[in-house]
Amino acid sequence: MARKKLRLKDVVLSIICVVFTIEACAPAAAIGNSSVFWWLFLFVTFLIPYGLIVAELGTTYAEGAGVYEWVRDSLGRRWATREAWYYWVNYFTWLASIAVLFPTTIGGMLGHQLPVWVSVAIELAFIWFVVWVSMQEVGDISWVMNLGAVVNVLLALSVGGMGIWYGSRHGFVSPLTPQSMLPDFGDPTTFTYLSVIIYNYMGCEVIATFVDSMESPQRDMPKAIVTSGLTIVAIYLFVSLGISTAVPHNRINLASGVADAVAAMTGARSWPFMLVSLGFLLSCFANMISWSHGVSSVTNRASKEGNLPRAFGAEDRKGRHLGSCVMTGVCTSALVVAGPLLESLGIGIFYVALSLDIVFTLASYVPMFPAFLRLRKIDPSRPRPFRVPGGRVANALFCWVPVAELVACIVISLVPFGMAPDQLKKLPLLGATVAVIILGEVVRHVSYRHATERASELGVELPAAKMGPDWDRRHNIHPRAYHLGHGSRR
């Protein structure tokens, strides 16, 4: 039976479902009205270059592993392994943070906090349901992503509209004036939430892993990225302003800001509050599903090429990414089970998981931009169905300005600036980040050593540390052809 193909409408909705996350609106609204400036500034300096680069790379190098293959073919095996590792860490920590929101939201709907064991049980059930759905064909679950995109947009419009309506009747908590929408550069906390804005713009490259399921990826991908990008920035602006008009920005709870805004306007346990809460849970589930295929495709390919442990490359009889999905479920489960212990030590599991997610999401995108320039240089003759406009200078700016913003946001997220409590709480996050990076280097080294031994037994040659699209002309066969997880060439 032929697999269902994604049309342009499906691709647009999938990108909206991947990129737009309603739960991320609360941290953005916590910036205050000055978030308007940052949304627009980063739309021009980050989202536009990022979207154009993804459109070129995704239509030119469309093998199904997306950003991993771009980094591999341009910067080499070592950076490709780091890319796959950071990409996976960002997903399973994000899944953990979303899992924690489920019992919190359900408890808010019921009017009381759930017992710890009930919360953990709900978190585990959510995680493994996501894992199970993630193993289905993209075409078969496209309706989930489409529904999630529609629900996300409806939630955003509802919350933003209620906030503006409430403010017009009862007075705006944060007056909407031109001055209030500009950042105060004299405030040391001005840049603290900057990483949240960039984080909320990420995810377009996930669609590059759907190419095998698209009707016409070369035609649809650029159109979908532009259309969805404009839609997403408009929605983010609307809902962030709606929340900040109902709840003072310094009182917005990062975990429940959307529900808090609705409760402040209509009352806790009112029918609008209940509907928004249910929609919030559904949108969170759809977000996780929309990202899952991209992450499992990257880690599955990295494992088969000897860059991650073999467990990530295991597949079932239908070729589904069983190993990657199960590894995600196991590690996420371990993190949420450890949640009560972390809470007893004064470390919020939601803060830890979401912060690690943001840091490693930002880190996983850094290599993609120089990969774009490198591939232009070493593979100039390859046909490019879509090409980023502009000359060499413009393309260099499209590359290095976003890289500078990403690095700055990583530093701001991890390095304490001063001795204030909100700065000192970055220290555990900094320690956890360093530990994950070191563990990734160990995994990379051990995985490649074991892969080298298997390759020797099979009589094949592993990819070099540095390579490019001309590797096959120099070595007769491209390194991506070695699928060591199956012990064969294909």
Automatic annotation (TrEMBL):
It comes from the Bacteria. Keywords: Cell membrane, Membrane, Transmembrane, Transmembrane helix, Transport. Pfam families: AA_permease_2. One of its GO terms (molecular function) is transmembrane transporter activity. It is found in: Cell membrane. Gene3D superfamilies: Amino acid/polyamine transporter I (1.20.1740.10). It is a multi-pass membrane protein. GO terms for cellular component: plasma membrane. The chain crosses the membrane at residues 12-30, 36-55, 84-102, 114-135, 147-166, 191-212, 224-247, 271-291, 322-342, 348-373, 393-415, 427-446. This is Amino acid/polyamine/organocation transporter, APC superfamily. It comes from Parafannyhessea umbonata.
